[in-house]
Write a structure and sequence with these properties.
Helix content: over 70%
Shape: elongated
Order of helices and strands: HHHHHHHHHHHHHHHH
CATH architecture of one domain: Up-down Bundle
Structural class: mainly alpha
Length: 385
Amino acid sequence: MNETIDIRKLKKRKITNDSDKKSIADNNRLWSFLNKDIHFGSSKIPDRIKENFYLELWSLLTAGIDIRTALELITGEQRKKRIRKVFNHISELVLSGATLSTALKKANEFSSYEYYSIQIGEESGKLLQVLKDLANYFDKKIKQRRQIIGAITYPVVVLVVAFGAVSFMISYVIPMFSDTFKRFGNDLPAITKFIVDFSSFIKKSIGPFILAFLAFIAFVIWQAKKIWFRKVSSQILLRIPVIGVIIQKIYLSRFSNTMALLIGAKIPMLQAIQLTRQMIDFYPIEHSLYIIENKIIAGIPLYKGLNEFKIYPQKMVSIVKVGEEVNQLELFFERLAQQYSNEVEYQTAILSKFLEPLIIVVLGLVVGVILIAMYLPLFKMGQTF
């Protein structure tokens, strides 16, 4: 223990012992949900720092270092004063006798998802596995965020550039042509007259439009947590072609992941439903689980409760029914979660590939129509000489 400890080397340490591999494999099913991109509340500490924290803590504890020393090493590694202060507070709480989950909760910098998972790990003796899976969870979350940013960057750049070009043409180019078009009187082609009138309307309305847009954004932020707003907005989202199906499958995957974890941890069904309702911030599922709680208390099976709500597909209800009959709900929820996760990944990739050429074609048509509308009168004027 007098050796200098290199945390970076510990991060790269791989499990080579066969018994350790078997132990990890046995626990993977219970904690696999941690590898999904689930969000349970805002976090003030960046995800990258959280990933490093859980990975380093797992590495140090696996190396046989006590948790107090491990937290001190991690705290000393932090460069930002605010982050160092948070970890120092956690270290002091643990030193005073608090559990790690309690310390994270009191730090007010970690989501309920994190400290609840660690609490289960402490109570079940699987803390090391939970820490490793939390590190994997944040690593995957960061990678998924980068993939999404990479997928939408090109369409967004094209939209911004095209919008700027069209705005410039409407605000400056078309008015320059308007003086020339005046000599045509009412003889302007219909398309040219429409573009000129539209340009004039935009220039007059841009101020009120911006104010109305800002007012709408402020209204959305103000009402975002109201029940009526969450209900209406979720219904609108689910009715959007293609996008609605993807959103539905994202939350069904999260629901299945959470249920697999809780049932695998031997938590009673009623309590599992209650905890899942608190974790998933999506009104249709939240509302349905509140009603399903009462049905379970009345002795009604889970699949019958799910069957009364459109948010749950009939195929999912049938699988849950089989899971209840053979007493293998954990396994079936894991399969459902994986299936929906794969479908979301595939459909998102297809949507991204479809949007890129579609945006280019649509914007090309818009620019082309404006150019034709501007030059058509000039061609007619040239024919009169």
